[in-house]
Amino acid sequence: MITVGWILNLDADLELADPSGFTPTRRLAQQSKVLADRLLVAANAADQRVRHIRLAPGDHPTTCQAWCATPRAHAAARAIGHELPATPPLPVLQKVNHRAFAAGFSPGLPGAAFVTSTQELDALMQTATPEHGWLLKRPFGFSGRGQKRVSAVPTGRDRRWVEASMVEYGCGLMVEPFVAIDQEFALHSWLDKDGVCLTGQPTRLITDELGAWLGNEPGPALHDQEREQLHAAHAVAARALSAAGFFGPFATDAFRYRTDDGRVHFHALSELNARYSMGFFVGLADCLEEWARRVAAQV
């Protein structure tokens, strides 16, 4: 049996935004632990031929993995006598997880753009007025963190939040028209160093009203055209990640939404997470043994 020992740093996105200054609060650490426990349960339920454990001193796993192989994850493994396998360097992890990266190769929602100054933001918002306002997303975030919905050019407290976003938190904002999401989907993969991609099956992504993860379900009801668009966008992301020097786990999210006139649209790449994600083991359920062999072969 292959045993995978885990460093479950689920707050890694916040470290990517501020590698030298990030320290998790007690509340964040507790929230991360609860989610990490749920992840281990899902991982162990997905394939009985692979065992998943939280890495501890004295363990002898077949391989070690981190949710995201940040400097803190490497340090945490070494502190208990283990080493993570070779992983992309921090600058690569920061680049590919920054929202500007996916915005550079993926068509966004109509009117969406990544901006790096308040002047750009104001100019963009003055060119259009979406019926339901705008959704602003900081470059690094997870489970709905770092997002704000506004109806027009931000003022007051919202303006100060925007100004801080331009100099901290990854410097910039992803600006999208707010849409009424009908269903969300995700596709997960393991990307080898040579660019070969082991890809699972689509899942339905279940989140709360703030975008926080609740679960993933296999076998979502996707139309043939939607499925093709989802896989095509995922393949484009894989090539872009490989070209940037990334290898390891990644996922792309998508969603179906409705406009006020009743028409249904499909957005094939709404998020790119170049790390593990909560639905990874549901998505790769049919090929987890192969995934385990690949991670065990890392040097």
What does this structure look like?
- The chain has helices at residues 12-17, 26-46, 71-79, 90-97, 99-103, 118-127, 156-165, 224-243, 280-283, 288-296; strands at residues 2-7, 50-54, 63-66, 113-115, 134-137, 147-150, 173-177, 180-191, 197-199, 203-207, 213-218, 248-258, 264-273.
- The protein has 299 residues and is of the alpha+beta class.
- The strands form 3 sheets. Strands 8, 9, 10, 11, 12 and 13 form a 6-stranded antiparallel sheet that branches.
- The longest helix has 21 residues, at 26-46.
- The mean pLDDT is 93.
In short:
This protein is an alpha+beta fold. It is built from ten helices and 13 strands.
Overall number of strands: 13
Would you tell me the overall average pLDDT? 93
Sheet having the most strands: 6 strands, antiparallel
* Helix share bin: 25-40%
SS strand fraction: 25-35%
Stretches with pLDDT under 50, minimum 5 residues: none
Rounded to an integer, what's the Rg over CA atoms? 19 Å
Query: How would you sum up the global shape?
Result: globular
What's the number of helices?
10
N- and C-termini, Cα separation: 19 Å
Class of secondary structure makeup = alpha+beta
Order of helices and strands: EHHEEHHHEHEEHEEEEEHEEHH
